[in-house]
Amino acid sequence: MDTVTLNNGVKMPQLGLGVFQISDYDVAKQSVLDGIKNGYRLIDTAAAYRNESAVGAVIQESGIDRKKLFVTSKLWVQDMSYEGAKQGFQTSLDNLGLDYIDLYLLHQPVGDTFGAWRALEELYQAGKIRAIGVSNFDSAQLANLIAFNEVAPAVNQVELHVFNQKPEAIDYMRNKGVQPEAWAPFAEGKHHIFTQPLLKNIGDKYGKTPSQVALRWLLQRHVVAIPKSTHENRLIQNLDVFDFQLSADDMKEIATLDIGHSEIVNHQDPKFIEMLAGMKIHD
């Protein structure tokens, strides 16, 4: 497994398993169990996914050395404040059954992100978190957070795939030492990504599927990716992307697929922000 080195020296696997939208406890457990068994070492969950306890149960039952795993979770907007972040983090830690979390993110740029970030800085300095970061922050929000805080985010997890490539945002992250991480690396199946003709033609040259080409494209842009699957054969296929290299011409062709915006969610829509602000995950 290839790794990236974060801005604090921590090494992070470049490919991992996401468990978004797997709320069923048993299904989430099986997915993570299959992932670990087949070589996944980065597991990405969140308080809002409601499956931290399933992830934690697998970690305990698997018998794998904890130091060999890289576990990510995220603080939901309901707890986006200094005190809320302290409690939200502890709840995630308890749900996971762990002594520390490898990467902990502010899930959305909504609420008192500065207060929450100060709490994460303290937890990081206390050794409870190995690296802290953000999710869904645009470049301006990222710049604001970096400018007025002591610790710069190690990671920014954003929607990123062949149809929404974000070249300027990626360049900004790199310039600031922030590692880009892609959620929805398969665009949630939009634009027929699993049979997309250009990706298929490129994949045929290497004996790979369109989805493997889409993942390889991310890896060659030095992006961390966390594809989700509940099917073991797909989990294995997603991991089988380290034995080929896309050419410069391949990368240029894939760049033509960029439509320059999301068709999954619009973080600039006030109604979406209002929805997030009102979304409760606990009493």
Describe the SSE topology:
Blueprint (H helix, E strand, L loop, with lengths): L2 E3 L5 E3 L3 E2 L6 H13 L4 E3 L7 H11 L7 E6 L6 H15 L4 E6 L6 H13 L3 E7 L3 H9 L7 E5 L7 H10 L2 E5 L13 H10 L3 H11 L3 E2 L6 H8 L8 H8 L14 H8 L6
Parallel strand pairs: 3-4, 4-5, 5-6, 6-7, 7-8, 8-9, 9-10
Antiparallel strand pairs: 1-2
Describe the structure.
The strands form two sheets. This protein has an eight-stranded parallel beta sheet with strand order 3-4-5-6-7-8-9-10. It starts with a strand and ends in a 6-residue tail after the last helix. It has helices at residues 25-37, 52-62, 82-96, 113-125, 139-147, 167-176, 197-206, 210-220, 232-239, 248-255, 270-277, and strands at residues 3-5, 11-13, 17-18, 42-44, 70-75, 101-106, 129-135, 155-159, 179-183, 224-225. Helix 1 (25-37) crosses helix 2. The protein has a single domain (3-277), classed as Alpha-Beta Barrel (TIM Barrel). The protein is α/β, with parallel strands linked by helices and 283 residues long. The chain has eleven helices and ten strands. The longest helix is centred in the N-terminal third of the chain and has 15 residues, at 82-96. It is globular. Helices cover 41% and strands 15% of the residues. InterPro entries: AKR, Aldo/ket_reductase_CS, NAD(P)_OxRdtase_dom_sf, NADP_OxRdtase_dom.
